[in-house]
Amino acid sequence: MTLDEFVEFCFAKPGVTDHFPFDENTLVFKVMGKMFALADAENFQSINLKCDPELAIELREKYNAVKPGYHMNKTHWNTVHVNSDASDREIFKWINHSYDLVAKSLTKKQREDLEKLH
Predict the structure, then answer these.
(1) Where are the domains of the chain?
(2) Is 78 in contact with 60 (CB distance < 8 Å)?
(3) Which of 80, 85, 104, 109 shows a CA-CA span of 20 to 30 A to 60?
(4) What is the pLDDT of residues 45-85, one digit of tens each?
(5) 104 vs 99: CA distance, rounded Å
(6) CATH level 2 (architecture), domain 3-107
(7) If residue 110 lies in a helix (H) or strand (E), which one and from where to where?
(8) Is the pTM of this model over 0.90?
(9) Which of 66, 45, 70 is nearest to 57 (CA)?
(10) What is the Cα–Cα distance from 41 to 64, expressed in whole angstroms?
């Protein structure tokens, strides 16, 4: 997976914006203002993704590419190394999972606004 593929996939989702809130290299994607994915735009080697805690453990046990979230809450975030033993197809699925988790946590009003963007 390339940075361009990652960016294009994230932007294809409704309500997504990108930001550099931490520094000039850490690209953060948000849905309706809440973070669901981040990566180093300068040195694209991994992506941090929100994940259901039970699934996070399963993925870490199954894939060398999946580690506890670097600089994140390790219960709810995974760091996924691209171009490792997880296929791009799997990583895209995990990006969808992260987006969906965050979208479900939005307020009712935010979810309604997001639905209008579909």
Answers:
(1) 3-107
(2) yes
(3) 104
(4) 999 999 999 999 999 999 999 999 988 999 999 999 999 99
(5) 9
(6) Alpha-Beta Complex (3.90)
(7) helix 108-116
(8) yes
(9) 66
(10) 22
